[in-house]
Amino acid sequence: MNQAEKRQLEILACKSRIGAIIGTFNAKSGHPGGSLSAADMFTYLYFKEMNIDPERPDWADRDRFVLSKGHCCPSLYATLALKGYFDWKELEMLRHVGAMLQGHPDMKGTPGIDMSSGSLGQGVSAACGMALAAKMDKKDYRVYTVLGDGECEEGEVWEAAMFAGHHNLDNLTVIVDCNGLQIDGTTAEVGGVEPLDTKFESFGFDTVIINGHDFDAIEGAMAKAKASDKPFAVIMKTVKGKGVSFMENEVGWHGKATNAEEYKIAIAELEKQLRELEA
Amino acid sequence: MAEIITKATRESFGEALCEMAEHNPDIVVLDADLSAATKTSIFAAAYPERFIDCGIAEANMVGVAAGLATTGKIPVAASFAMFATGRAFEQIRNSVAYPNLNVKIAGSHAGISTGEDGATHQCLEDIGIMRTIPGMVVLNPADHWEMKAATKAALEYEGPVYIRLGRLAVDSFNDPETYEFHWGKGITLREGTDVTVIATGLCVLESLKAVDELIAEGKSVRLINIHTIKPIDRDIIIKAAKETGRIITVEEHNVIGGLADAVCEVTSAECPVPVRRIGVYDQFGYSGPAKELLDIFGLTAPNIKKVILEELDK
Asked: Does the CB of A67 have a partner CB in chain B at under 8 Å?
C-alpha cells in the first residue's frame, strides 16, 4: 500500500482507539487493554481486507468476522461505527441498559456483528462453521477471527484448529492477538501457551508471525493467507493498551475503565497522535 | 389397531432426518464420532456431502453448527445426551441459544435405559439442563411415530431445539393413521377423573400399560403424553389438576429438573395439587441390562400401577 493509504489506516485505527476509551469510560467498565492491542487489525480488516457492505450487513456473500475474544469489542464497535454500520454516538451508551452495544458482541442487536461471542474459545468453532458453509455452497467468501493469546489456553480452540486443518479450510484466517498479558499476569506465567506458530502448524495451518501494529506487515500476512492452500494463522505480536502510555503493557488495564482524570489523559494522548497523523 | 413397530427412537430420528433432507437441501448433520450409535449414520449414508463428522469434540461440533446456522443452514448436531448437553452446555447456551440460531441438538442414549455402559453414559440431567436455557425447545418423543413427527417439526421450526433420543428399542403405541404432533401440546391418551398420570418418553408406553390394566379393573385414570417438555402444555396440566385433583409424573430422568419440575411449576402457580413423582431420585445409575434397570428404578408398568393405586387410595 502507498503511504497515503497507510496513513489513512493509522488515522482510522487511532479513532477506533479513541472510541474504545470513550465507550469504556462511559460504561464505567469494559476492556480497554485488548481493545487497543487489536485496533489496528480491526481497522485493516474492515477498511482494506474484507469484502463487506455496511448497507447490507446480512449480505449472504460477504466476508465474515468473528471476534472470539469478545471482550475486546469496544474498538471493534468503534471500527464498525467508522465504517458506517451505526452511529458513533452509540459508543457513549456502551453497556448501558437498553443499549445496542452490549458488553460482549450480540449478532442479533448490532449491525455488522456476524457472531455473538464473549465466552472464550468458542469463536474459532463458529468461524469454522461459516468457512465450511462456504465450501459446501461453493462460495468464495472468506472468514476471519481474532482471538487472544490467553484465550488459546481454552481446549476448544484446539478442537477447532484440528477441525480447520482436517477439513482444510483455506478460506479461514485465524488471527491471534499476542499481547502477552491475561487477567492474572503474563501469558508466560499463567498458561504457557507459546509457541503458538508451531502449534497451529502442527494442526495443519500455514502461519506467519508479524508486528500487529504495522499495516505493511498486516497486508503481507493477509496476502500470504489468501495465497495459502491451508487454513492460515497470523500470530500478531502486539502491545496491550497500545496508544495510551499508562496502559501499555500493564496487566491492570485488562478489564477496567478510566476514571475522569485518566480519561482526559488518555483522550489527550490519542488526540495528539491523531493530529500528528492528520498533519 | 395399528401394527406395532419395535424400534429405538434414535433410529426413527435417523430415518426422519433422511426424509426431511430429501426436500430441504439446507439440512446438514454433525456428529462426534458416534454416528453408528446416534443413527445419524443413516443420514450419512444417504447424504455424505451433507454429513460432517467432527470427531470426539462436542464443544467444537456445537460451535461449528452455530457457524453453519449463521449462513442459513439447518444443522443437526448429535451425540449422546450426556456429552451433547453436558460437555457442550455452554456452547449451546452462548453460541446457539443466545443468538437464537437454528441449530437442533440431538441427545441419544438418554436415561437409565442406556444400560450396560453405566452411570457415566446414563444421562439423567439433560432435560433439566436444556430446559433452563432461554428459548430452548425440549422434545422427548415416546415412540417411532412420534419421533418421526417430532423430528420433522423440529426441522421446520426456526430456532434452537433439543430432542432426546433413546437407545432401547420400544414398541410403538401410536397409530400413524390418526397420530398428530402438535408443537407444545400434550396428548390425552386415556380419559379419567380420579388421578392423572403425566408421562414422557419411553415411560409413556409403560404408563399406558399400567393405566389400561387399572381401567380394566374399573378405575378412572387419565393419561397424558407430554412430548414437548418446553414449552409445556400448561392448559392440559391445569385442566388435569382441576378435574382429577392429583397428578403422577413419570420420566426416565432425575426427578429434579425434568418433567416433574415442569409440571409442578405449572400446578404450584395455577392449581396446587399433590404431585407424586416417578423418576430417578437424585442418584447416579449403574451398569445392567436396560429393561432390568428400568424395573429396578420403578419406571415400568408394575411400579407405575402400584403408585397409581396408592394415590387412588389417598
From this structure: no
The SS3 of residue B243 is helix
Q: Distance (Å, rounded) from C-alpha A103 to C-alpha B299?
A: 46
A62, A63, A114, A116, best to mutate vs chain B, most B CBs in 10 Å:
A116
Domain count, chain B: 2
Distances (CA, A) of A127 to A16, A141, B66: 24, 12, 9
- Final residue belonging to a domain, choices B141, B171, B201: B171
* Same-domain pairing of B45 and B136: yes
For B55-76, what is each residue's pLDDT tens digit?
999 999 999 999 999 999 999 9
Q: Which of B247, B259, B251 is nearest to B194 (CA)?
A: B247
Closest by CA position to A254, among listed A202, A176, A166, A187:
A187
DSSP conformational letter for B284: -
Rounded to 5°, the CA angle B54-B87-B282 comes to: 145
* pLDDT per residue as tens digits for the range B104-151: 999 999 999 999 999 999 999 999 999 999 999 999 999 999 999 999
Q: Are A66 and A112 in contact (CB under 8 A)?
A: no
Residues of B acting as catalytic residues: 58
Instruction: Say whether A129 and B59 touch across the interface (CB within 8 A).
Output: no
Nearest-angstrom CA–CA distance, B101 and B158: 8
ipTM for the predicted complex = 0.96
Per-residue pLDDT of A213-268, as tens digits, reads: 999 999 999 999 999 999 999 999 999 999 999 999 999 999 999 999 999 999 99
Backbone angles phi, psi at A176, to 5 degrees: -105, 120
The answer to whether B259 and B267 are in contact (CB under 8 A) is no
Q: What's B245's domain CATH number?
A: 3.40.50.920
Of A202, A140, A208, the residue nearest A171 (C-alpha): A140
CB A118 within 8 A of CB A104: yes
Max CA separation in chain A (angstroms):
53
Listed residue (A68, A77, A64) closest to A15, CA to CA: A77
Structural domain including B299 reads: 187-312
Provide the residue ranges of all domains of chain A, joining segments of one domain with +.
Answer: 3-278
pTM over 0.90: yes
Could you tell me the CATH number of the domain that includes residue B74? 3.40.50.970
Q: Determine which helix (DSSP H) or strand (DSSP E) holds A120, and give its type and residue range.
A: none
Alpha carbons B184 and A277: distance in angstroms, whole number: 61
Set of cell numbers at residue B69 = 446456522
* Bridge partner list, B139: B163, B228
Per the document, the length of chain A is 279
Which member of B54, B55, B67 has the closest CB to residue A130?
A: B67
Q: What is the DSSP string of B117-154?
A: G-TTT-BSSHHHHHHTSTT-EEE---SHHHHHHHHHHH
CATH class (in words) of the domain with range A3-278: alpha beta
